[in-house]
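Subject: FtsX-like permease family protein structure
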Amino acid sequence: MLRATLKSLLARKLRLTLSTLAVVLSVMFVSGSLVLTDTLGRTFDNLFANIYTYTDVQAWAKSPIDQQGGGGSQNSTPFPASTVDRVAKLDGVAKATGQVFLNGAMPIGHNNKVVVNQTGQQFGANWTGEDELVKLAEGHAPQTDDEIVVNKGLAEAANVKVGDSMDVITRDHQRASYKIVGFMQYTGGRNSMAGESTVFFTTAKAQTAMLGTEGAYNVIDVRAAPGVSDEKLRDTVRAELGDGFVVKTGKELSDESSQAIKNILKYFNYVLLGFGAVALLVGVFLILNTFSIIVAQRTRELALLRAMGAARGQVLRSVLLEALIIGIVGSIFGFLVGLGLGALGAYLFVGLADGAQVAGLGFPISAIIASFVIGIGVTTIAALMPAVKASRVAPIAAMRESAAPDRPLTKLTISGAIVTALSAGALAWGLAGAGGGTLALVFGGVLGLLIGVALLTPVISKPLVAALGAVLSWSVPGKLGRRNSARNPRRTAITAGAVMIGIAIVTAISTIFTSLSTALGDTVSKDLQADVVVLGQQTNEVPPVVTPQELAKIEALPQAKTVAAITADVVKINGEQAYVLSYLDPAAGTATLKVTADQGRIDKLDAGEFMTDKKTAENRKLKLGDTIQVTFSKGQQKTLKLTGITSDSAIGNGIVLSYADAKEGFAFSDPWQVFLSLKDGSSPEQAKAAVNDILKDNPQVQAYTKDEYVKTNQQGFTVALVIVQVLLLIALAISVLGVINTLLLSVIERTRELGMLRAVGLRRGQTWLMVTTESIVITVFGTLLGLVVGVGLGAAIVTALKDVLGFGAVTLPWGLMTLYFVASVFVGGVAGLIPSVRAVRLNVLGAIAYE
């Protein structure tokens, strides 16, 4: 029996190849995502290890507000130069260097735009001389406050040379012109560490421009004396500086920085694995269909084995062995293809950050295990039902010319209805937030609905396939193609089900994003009482702002009626971190954002006062006259009194502090956004042009009309939707290959039938049209089913989360849905191309004699 199984497998090489391809496609996405994240993780381990190779110990002052990132480069709290002197005198310290090294020095290019990079790191630093890490590649060190040295990566990006001038906007939001007197590189001739830009000033200039104070630093770099370990030096410095400072070794900084990136990659991996799960689900349908057709083709062969004495268990084990072999081979190739895709993704990802180098490609155990567990497991499970069916073939079937007719769909339909009903209930329960495991209920409900609808697809396919086929039945080949697609409802349903899943998920996400985008646009259009909006593109952790001088000029414009300026920051409220706003003029701010008073006064805020909306007050259990304890970014602590509660607003919610307190405590108190209401008869386009003329020397911010501002707010949803669609193309590609696979195997199965049709006069072109019609009918049927299911899922989620996420009415993505439908016709034609070519090339006499 083993020899018979192996000979049967090797005798049908095309069938073996197609079956293995189904497994490869199912495995490669999962293995590729695991390889990608493993490679990127080790790459960033190496990167940060290189950055901190020559760092023994670093120290910096604790910030009043928790700040993200590793090292003092993310901490803006200054401390006096005398602190460096104290550390330098400690036992075990060879050298202590005070440094200014902080994100927020924005270089301006020849086009008067900020020279951005992919890392969001635009450092400003004081030049402390060359060392093991930093080398001068050209020129000399900055000697006066109008001279700078830049890293060579920035020089190449900005296309500048030594002796050129470059404008730089520093953390104090002052723009000044500097002369480039030198280029620096890191050890090993690297132009940057990871694609960042760094501008080196004199120490005095770096202190005032980056820290806003003289004679201060934000980092101490400490070198150990010979024979002193980094850990001992760290403990010595920590004991001297006390609890107000953070002190870490270079290895600790490297590990923490790398871990911060890995935490981001972890969620990125979850997303990729989510799409891998979709690909797997589609792959299950593909493998199930493949083995179902294989068993149908081998009915007489299996019956002969039974007639020769093979037991049912032997036939069952024979088919499962075939599945096991295919699963193992498919897992190997799936892992290898995933390995290649992961490596390619890593190189593309790291290529965005000039200076970083991909770590050697590894073979993560998780990817190897996942590949074989998924490949073998999915193949075996998918082949189990066809294997059981094969074991039930009666010996008498060896005498029949064809397989037995398809079984009734009653049991399958009842099962599908039960699964669909239970899954719909789980989804509804999860979206309602009832009980625990809400997320599991939602995902389980969505998965169950897809499976339930797939089980119902055979009974749905009969009328729909007949209707779709009727549209293409203007000729005899078209009628034959329609009848072929309706001949075996199970097979058609499984093939279309694979298409349905990909389309359903894309459509559901498109519906959610379109509804949210439309709701946001409608809300802003309705509630924002402004004709022109000024905002910026943030390129690092420092927000783009409008300077006081620019704001005064905007307020003085003849067409200006009301000018509302808003700033924001992160503070601690009663010990908990929170995001707060501040209006420079509360009366103008509340009017522009269409905020009305519910209790108290909202048109004025004095120092020590704040206001908030009704919902926030309820959540924080605040009433008029209550107080909160606020810790600001600059370290001040104040008790603020609630003097006004506003009605709930879609765009004006949150805690609002007085500008007097914001100016004193916010890290960046200048306005982040400016809203301009115009006098009657004024042109928004002309006002926008006038504002942009005022802002011509501020490349970080730009004026937009109200309509442009709405579209800007919606861009994030558009970008996210594009990313999702690109990733889900993998699942759709698998489903399309499933159509090709099914039709190829179907052509093999109907070889004799096709020979007979050719013999009675069906021409080659008509044969091609017949197979292509079948392909289009199946693909369009799956697409229509996916559109309906996707819209239903998307509408259910939008409706359930209406109050939570601020959705409006359900908005259907008609344009995308039309595109999916039109594309399905094209894809169906392409998918039918290979099977139709094989059908056309059949030798008529050989096909008639085919067994």
